Amino acid sequence: MLEDWELIEQLHQGNKQAYTQIVERYKGKIYAFLYRMIGHTQDAQDLTQEVFIKAYCSIGGYRPEFRFSSWLYRIAANHCLDELRRRKRSPITTGDETKLIHDNTPEQMLLVKEQHAILQRHLLALEEDHRVILLLRYEEQLSYKEIGEVLSIPVTTVQMRIYRAHKKLHQCLIPVKGGGSVEMREV
C-alpha cells in the first residue's frame, strides 16, 4: 500500500487513480466525522463528496511537512462549519442512526443505545467550535498539535476549547439515566 505522499506525487504526475485511492482510504473517516458534526446521513454524504472535490481542486496547496489526514480534516471541518453557519439551523439526529455496542443482555444494549442518543443530542447542541474540537480529539484521535493544524489555531487555544467543551458537555451529562456516565469514546 502506497503512502499518502506517494499517491499525491502520482496525482501531480497526472495519475487520476491515485486520487481514487486517497478517497477510498479516507471517505469512511471523513463521513463519520461529518455525520457527527451535522447529524444527518444525507447531509454528511453530500458534505463528504464536497470535501473530496475541494481537496482535489486544492491539492496543489497541500504542504508535505504536514500529515495529509490533518490537511483533509481541516478542509472537512472548515467546510462543515461554513455549511452550519450558512444554514443557521440546529442539526437533528434519529435514534436509528446511533451505534450500538453489542453486550450480553438486551437491557445493556438498550442502556447503551440510550446513552449514545443522549450524548449525540448533547454533542449536536454544543457550539460548532466545541463540537468539532471534541470530535477531532476523541473520535479521530488527533493530537492537540494536529487539531491546531486542522483548525489553524494555537495548541493553547485547542487546550482551552477542549476544557470548555468538556465542562459544557459534563454539565449536560450529569443526570444520565442508569447511574453511569457517557464518555466520548463510546460515541
Automatic annotation (TrEMBL):
It comes from the Bacteria. The keyword Glycoprotein does not apply. The keyword Transcription applies. Residues 118-169 form the RNA polymerase sigma factor 70 region 4 type domain. Residues 22-89 form the RNA polymerase sigma-70 region domain. Pfam families: Sigma70_r2 (PF04542), Sigma70_r4_2 (PF08281). Keywords: DNA-binding, Sigma factor, Transcription, Transcription regulation. Gene3D superfamilies: 1.10.1740.10, Winged helix-like DNA-binding domain superfamily/Winged helix DNA-binding domain. CDD domains: Sigma70_r4. Belongs to the sigma-70 factor family. ECF subfamily. This is RNA polymerase sigma factor.
